User: What shape does this take?
Amino acid sequence: MSSFLHQRSLQAASSDTFELSPRSRQNYQKPTVALLSRGPALLLLLLSLLVILGVIFPYLQSPISLFSFKSWSSGSKWREYTLPDAAAYVAKNNTLIVCAVSEAYLPFLNNWLISIARQKQQDKVLVIAEDFATLYKVNERWPGHAVLVPPALEAAAAHKFGSQGFFNFTARRPRHLLQILELGYNVMYNDVDMVWLADPFPYMEGEHDVYFTDDMAFVKPLNHSHGLPPPGKKGRPYICSCMIYLRPTPGAKLVMKKWIEELQAEPWSKAKKANDQPGFNWALLKTAAQVDMYLLPQTAFPTGGLYFRNKTWVKETKGMHVIIHNNYIVGFEKKIKRFRDYGLWLVDDYASESPLGKI
Assistant: This one.
């Protein structure tokens, strides 16, 4: 948004406001004496000015200026905030970390953010809010880090895995990612039922188009292939659509476009309660000959079906884990309990580490 570009001019204006003319300087050589001679009223005025400066100064130092902040923090104004605006504000080193969240998932968002903040990567995070309650709440506490791409979804629609609301929620993902790629950014997508134990970016080695993780729970060799795994019983691979890293290349854009096509070809129905992941796998399989793909190491990015169910493997690979995904389980309370059991539900004791604070 254009107000971001006026930071320097606002700062210059604020300094120029207090520049004194030559005549003023002559009269202002002994400020203490002048103030005392004019009585308490001027002292009160000076104190008031100091208080006002103390309030506005932090915003003058921020990419969101004072005047912009007043306007955008007033709830409904965030409706005008666009994905290009948000990406330009949040991106660092031309890279974004993106999640898509509805209001019910805010505790998971906060838990995920704490783990990212511990890796000093939180400034890259852009929250794609799927309802206005999430948009307002995140931007109230962390201005500029949430954006809503219309249309907004019903707040409670995406709660149940396998529901049409859940499908509608997840089916928007490739469109969001494609738009970010078209803007020229690298983008890492995460579901918020994840916890970072280390910085994942060193693992995005090479210059591949698409990076992803295997969702199969069987143990792979430590030196397993980084190519797309072969199709399973259903004729397609079993790659997780919840952790993806994309570079803004023709190959990555092709995968996103094919993913969108697959979701349009297999919409949700009562008979076939689809989700977005099969479409992603078909897209990968059908574009594999044209796209440079990279399967991330299982030791660093294990599926929940392995990490939470194979204690022997966890001990053998201790110190290698980077992002833990709390999948292979359905239900908010069950996911929270499992995170607590493994010491990964951080919001109970460390909410102050999140950019959002305690929600």
Observations:
- The chain has two domains: 20-61, 80-353.
- Residues 44 and 50 are 10 Å apart (CA to CA).
- The two ends are 28 Å apart (CA to CA).
- The chain has a mean pLDDT of 82.
